[in-house]
Design brief:
The complex is a heterodimer of chains A (256) and B (261). Chain A is mainly α and 256 residues long. Helices cover 77% and strands 0% of the residues of chain A. The chains are: A mainly alpha (256), B mainly alpha (261). At the A-B interface, helix 2 and helix 9 of A face helix 2 and helix 9 of B.
Chain lengths: 256, 261
């Protein structure tokens, strides 16, 4: 375990240095990722001007979005398509450890580079956070980050079977946008969809931590949200393991 | 001009023939595009379960706007993005040399050498959404309104093309500056009426980066009394965008030194 942590730290260091060279590109990624929560903020602030809590929610959502971004369709799937996975398989550690290291490094850049945007949005929107709510949201944010990585990695493994991994992951991101709390806060979904929405994995990786940080949930709802997060993490991790094993058996490297 | 039109149709025809050899891919990409449009429509529908108007726009008007946005977005994805996205790679990889050697204006070959036919599904769905919502407006659009909306739609398409060329041209001056992702993010701002944004942002979206012309102004022209000032502003914006595109492209090419030998 300790060796695994050291390896992960080494990968994070390596990818921080690698992405440092592409920081202007990361800035464009940050704007691209941040734009949907900001549009959501503008739309719902215009739609429901009497609810200041909604602005706080969307500022929190911007933080969650930047903290949980995942690009495994690029960092992993492309390695399958280009044959580089053959090298990765020879390394004496789980292949996805490198993807996880890159994921954490890229997220670090997103949060750091996105900080001025977050502060500006918070100031303009007049967002107000309570320390207790933020403290309660911190574990939810970490679990959301873990779940979104597992979810994106799972969809990216489709690269073993099809050349459409980018499209499949795009479909997953569309669902996260629609049902995860960006297009519409889960609490504002129409009646029957609300209960279903809360049980799906999408709010667990985006909207739930933002709702906790904005102080919009009762203790019971919070407990239920944490349970869904842990449940979906267990399901996604198990699926990832099964699909990975099946995928590697199918993988054929060309060259030598 | 006629020759370029024929050339463009030939490019589209050849690309469709090539793409039809990979029907599953074509079908999947088209389905993906349609899913994204459906997600946007669903999000808009949920907003209107809570309000009757959004920043002065009724549900039918905002849906009409969304339809127009999807039409222009589909055209962007079908014809412009496959040519100008990540254009810096073409400059530094030497691919631009091939485009410059072809017997057609370089701006044309750089912008329209290939296309993504699946994105036309988005254009079709945009037309359907726009057409259906137009029947729910409560009042029949006037002939003048329809002409004004079509003219402003053309303005939106010209601005879309010109802005994409201008952004791609930056790579001639700043090596490594790749703003394709930024453009796609910025483009999203046109999805809703620009009146939802706070004053300074609305001003930027109208005069500096005229996202308002993509969908808000055409939809406004169709649903409000004819505004000559809006039409005049649109004509000026389109003309300005075309002149700026041409000047910057020529300056960029003067600066260009071939990447290959």
């Amino acid at each position: 375990m300790r060796q695994m942590s050291r390896l992960l730290a080494a990968y994070i260091r390596r990818y921080v240095l690698q992405w440092l060279a592409a920081r202007s590109f990361v800035l464009t990624l940050v704007v691209d990722q941040g734009i949907t929560p900001l549009i959501g903020l503008a739309v719902w602030a215009a739609a429901l001007p009497g609810q200041p809590g909604i602005k706080t929610y969307y500022v929190a959502l911007l933080v969650v979005q930047l903290f949980t971004v995942s690009y495994e369709q690029h960092t992993f799937s492309n390695r399958v398509y280009e044959g580089q996975l053959a090298d990765d398989l020879l390394r004496p550690h789980p292949v996805l450890l490198a993807s996880l290291g890159e994921n954490i490094a890229v997220r670090g850049f997103h949060v750091v580079i996105g900080l001025p945007i977050i502060l500006m949005a918070g100031w303009v929107a007049g967002a107000r956070f309570g320390w207790a709510d933020v403290a309660l949201a911190a574990p939810a944010l970490l679990l959301a980050a873990a779940l979104r990585f597992l979810f994106t990695a799972l969809l990216s493994l489709s690269a073993f079977w099809t050349e459409q991994a980018h499209g499949i992951t795009g479909l997953g991101n569309t669902l996260i946008f629609l049902l995860g709390g960006t297009a519409v806060p889960v609490a504002l979904l129409p009646g029957p969809l609300q209960a279903l929405g809360a049980a799906l994995p999408f709010p667990a990786m985006l909207g739930f931590p933002a709702e906790v940080a904005a102080g919009q949930l009762t203790p019971g709802m919070m407990l239920s949200g944490y349970s869904w997060q842990l449940g979906w993490i267990a399901v996604s991790a198990a699926l990832l393991l099964v699909v990975w094993r099946a995928g590697v058996r199918r993988y054929t490297a060309v060259g030598g | 001009m006629l020759r370029l039109g024929r050339l463009f149709l030939r490019v589209v025809s050849l690309t469709i023939q090539r793409e039809l050899a990979h029907r599953v891919n074509l079908f999947f990409q088209a389905t993906l595009a349609l899913t994204q449009v459906a997600a946007g429509l669903a999000a808009l529908s949920v907003i209107y379960t809570h309000v009757n108007t959004l920043a002065g726009w009724t549900a039918a008007q905002a849906t009409l706007l969304l339809g127009i946005y999807e039409i222009v977005s589909g055209l962007l994805q079908a014809f412009i993005e496959p040519n100008l996205a990540f254009f810096s790679n073409k400059i530094y990889g030497g691919e631009l040399d091939d485009l410059l050697l072809q017997p057609a204006p370089s701006l044309f070959t750089a912008s329209f050498s290939t296309c993504q036919p699946w994105a036309l599904a988005e254009v079709g769905l945009g037309m359907l959404i726009g057409g259906l919502s137009a029947t729910h407006l409560g009042s029949i659009p006037t002939a003048g309104g329809i002409v004004a909306a079509l003219l402003l739609l053309l303005v939106g398409i010209i601005i879309m093309w010109a802005s994409r060329v201008l952004l791609a041209s930056l790579a001639f001056w700043a090596q490594g500056l790749e703003l394709s992702v930024l453009y796609s993010g910025w483009w999203q701002l046109g999805r809703y009426p620009i009146t939802i944004y706070p004053g300074p942002i609305r001003w930027v979206l109208t005069y500096i980066v005229p996202v308002a012309f993509i969908a808000t102004f055409p939809a406004y022209a169709l649903t409000h009394p004819l505004d000559p000032l809006l039409l005049a502003g649109g004509a000026a914006a389109a003309l300005g965008a075309l002149v700026a595109m041409r000047l910057v492209w020529r300056a960029a090419l003067r600066r260009y030194t071939s990447a290959t030998s």
